[in-house]
C-alpha cells in the first residue's frame, strides 16, 4: 500500500502524469491511500481525474471520493482469509477548503468521523483494520504528541495496523499497548512515518525509506488477530548524478538501493560496489535503524 502524492507539477501545488497510475500498477502495487494535504492541489476536478486514472489502471484506493456513496464505502480485502479494511485520513488540505456540497471528497482527521468509519468496518465484518494517517511534523524524525494521542485513539477502537505518512522522513515504529478503562489492554503496530518512498528531496533524512513487512496471524480457534512480526528492508534513494554509483547506466537519475545488499556484496567481494558506495550504505543503514528502531520479531 502506497500513499499517493502528486509531486511532479511545481511547488506549492502538485500534479503528475496520468501514466504514473499504470506504472505503479505494473510495479506490483495494489492499493493507494489518497487522503493527504495535496488532495485538492488541482481542485475537485483534479481529484476526480486522479481517481478515474487509478480506476483505469486497476488500482484500488481509499481516502478521497467522487460522491457521498463512494465515501460511504469501506475498502475491504480478503488477505489470506483475514477480512481487512483499509482507511485513510489527512490532517488537512493545505488551507484549500473542501468544495461546498462535496465535503465528502477528502477524509479529514476527525475523531468522530474516524470512529464512525471504524465502527462501520467492524459492522461489515472487518477482522483487521489498517489505517493510513497523514499527520505529523515535516522533517521531524520523532512523532509529536498529537500523533501519539491519535494512535492511542485508533488502538482503543480496535485498529491493529497504523501507517503514518506526511513528514517526508522516517519516524519510529513500535508495538503500542493501550490500557483500557476496565484494565484490559489492546496492542497494535504503529509506524509514525514511512517517509518518502521515491523522492528527489535533498533535506536531511528525506532519502531514507523502507519496504515494510507486517506479518498478521489469525488464531484458527478463537479468531483473534495478532501482529507477529514487523520487519523492514532499508532503502536509500540514490542520485546517480553524483557519479558515485558504478552500476548506473546514465539513463535514470534516481535509483532505489537496497543498502543491506550493497554492504553484504561488498564485504563478500561480489557485486560492483566501490568503497564510497559501501561507506554510504553503512552510514545510511545506521541512520535508518537509529530512527526506526529495531525490527519487531515476536515469533
Note down, in words, how this protein is organized:
With 299 residues, this protein is of the alpha/beta class. It has one domain: Metallo-dependent phosphatases (Purple Acid Phosphatase, chain A, domain 2, 4-Layer Sandwich), CATH 3.60.21.10. Helix content is 27%, strand content 29%. The protein has seven helices and 13 strands. The strands form three sheets. Strands 4-5-6-7-9-8 form a six-stranded mixed beta sheet. The longest helix is centred in the C-terminal third of the chain and has 18 residues, at 275-292. It starts with a strand and ends with a strand.
Please supply descriptive tags for the structure shown above.
299 residues, Purple Acid Phosphatase, chain A, domain 2, 27% helix
SSE order and pairing:
Elements: E1 2-3, H1 19-26, E2 31-33, H2 43-57, E3 60-62, H3 68-71, E4 75-79, E5 82-90, H4 111-123, E6 128-134, H5 145-156, E7 161-165, E8 170-179, E9 185-194, E10 208-218, E11 225-239, E12 254-258, H6 259-268, H7 275-292, E13 296-297
Parallel strand pairs: 1-2, 2-3, 5-6, 6-7, 7-9
Antiparallel strand pairs: 4-5, 8-9, 10-11, 11-12, 11-13
Helix pairs in contact: 1-2, 6-7
- Can you tell me the number of structural domains? 1
Q: Approximately what portion of the residues adopt beta-strand conformation?
A: 25-35%
Helix tally?
7
Q: What is the CATH topology classification name?
A: Purple Acid Phosphatase, chain A, domain 2
Overall pLDDT metric: 93
CATH class label? Alpha Beta
- Residues in helices, as a percent range: 25-40%
SSE run: EHEHEHEEHEHEEEEEEHHE
CATH architecture level-2 label: 4-Layer Sandwich
